[in-house]
Amino acid sequence: MKIIYQPFITALVILMSALLSLSVQAAQKEAPLPETFATHKVVLQISDPDPFKQTLVLNVAANLQKYYGPEDVDIEIVAFGPGLRLMLEGNSNTKRIKSMMDGGIRLSGCANTLEGFSKQLGYKPALIEGIQVMPAGAGRILQLNAAGYQILKP
Length: 154
Prior knowledge:
Layout: H1 2-29, E1 40-46, H2 51-68, E2 73-79, H3 94-102, E3 106-110, H4 111-121, E4 132-134, H5 137-146, E5 150-152
Parallel strand pairs: 1-2, 1-5, 2-3, 3-4
């Protein structure tokens, strides 16, 4: 009987090792979470190409920080899809975005979208200096939400 169970046990050990390896690789792909002691944690999503909505998301972030104070609210704006245009160097909001980053608001762009833009344009467009690139914008939003961030999509 020992011989019959040996291949089964060996296969089970190999399967468990493979699953553990995959989960470690998945965890390594996620960006680190910000260290914050803020009472309020907010992630703002921008996936829309409309300049009005892009400006609106910046207004909401600024208003939240003004209302709660920079010490009591942690804000990250995550852009993916057509919304990534907000974070391209030369955007009409570049100066404002740099000022917001100086004030503690984080901005993150989607690497998948950036890759898509690169294929369409034939070159990799530059993002505003200081913007973090995340493997997947939607994934970053889910990661932050799982860590207690409230999702807002103005």
